[in-house]
């Protein structure tokens, strides 16, 4: 499709799709042969291919061989800053290319259920650097290749896992060491108890061997280490009637104790190919390692205590609210830390989480990190949601991190003009003959309605999200748009303004025409709306249908990886 910009000139935006019983592929090329603003050619290429075949079971398509390829590349470092089309991504400055093949199987051997996964991958990155050195990004390592196997087995109450993998790491920054790494990670655990009381001791290990292309400080290029670990995880579930709120409700009390013992092993000279500190929160404080990846394993001698209470509707099983507390206690100092300084604080920050929903109309979610030593709130996130009906969603979010950021965000999807058509709720998981007949009748009615031009009636919706930085006193992100649903067709006009620096921002406009049940034409704003507006629902799809998302609607483009 030809494109024209008064600022940048003429271009081309083309997309090709292919779909068969065992192969799905699409490719999109945005080409600007001569950008009048920069005086050079600009382009973006995105493609995806996936296949699933040779499955041994017709009821479990996750078994057997599968392969997929994802690619996203642009012409230059400033492509993201200029807001050009074709490069929508959750990480606009880090564009990935990945190719993988995988084989999954399941079997039973000596009374054990064994799942096996064999895989091979290639992973490359394009990093869009900034002319401002203070905003530069350290390029991640590329894997060429990554070959591994994963086995998991369960025998009665015993759980066993083993992963072995070989990686070849390279980096576009030649000053950073590369090389080969072979690792094995395994664990064996035993579950005691029942649904009300569970106790799981677990032994695990992390072994890695490196062959580096640059010598370490002591001159070695081959080095290895093995780190064992012991954890004890105890969980309890207590219940009682919550008639003090209203009849038919049940309250739970779910205490949890987690003990972890990991000895110290010297890892100061080892490279960090894929390890990074985990965000410390109410979930990761129960993890067996405070680092992701393989290269770093933190020493630990600690106990984590937590408790969660939930309010549940007995009739529907819906959770109406929950509240949780968690805190970690060190029994000895931790020497391997993200900043390299030993951690001696015996009691960690206290984490509190909570959520509630008044039916399905109002909702409140919150998380808070409190430092008991300084008596300060270190981080907090609070969100209020109002969703009275399909295609009606309002949300307000406050985020605060001490000495870092403070933001307020508003998001909305709301009809502005015309009646908001409501579709009947149809449970797609109900396979009863009555439900199937109801779905067929509804589908026939929709087809007849769409086929009749006189049935087209319009509803205008407003959509958007505003992120305001209270610390910097400026708007960091602004997304504002209109959607018009005429029944037979839908059109969307969306403007996005994104901050690209302390004193710079880029603005882009997206216009799309959707012919219902056929195709979409123009610049696609759906991924922007879906990723940024809480509660956003794709028009012409049932909000209760999991397929009703921007990435999975028939006739729509594939969402970015």
Q: Helix/strand/pairing class, anyone?
A: mainly beta
Question: Which consecutive residue ranges, at least 5 long each, have pLDDT under 50?
Answer: 55-59, 420-435, 445-454, 542-561
Report the average pLDDT across residues. Answer: 84
Report the C-alpha radius of gyration, rounded: 27 Å
What key phrases describe this protein's structure?
561 residues; mainly beta; two-stranded antiparallel ribbon
Sum this structure up briefly.
By secondary structure, this protein is mainly beta. The chain has 2 helices and 29 strands. The chain starts with a strand and ends in a 29-residue tail after the last helix.
Task: Describe this structure as you would to a colleague.
Among the domains are: 99 residues; 145 residues; 34 residues. Helix content is 5%, strand content 56%. It starts with a strand and ends in a 29-residue tail after the last helix. The C terminus is likely disordered.
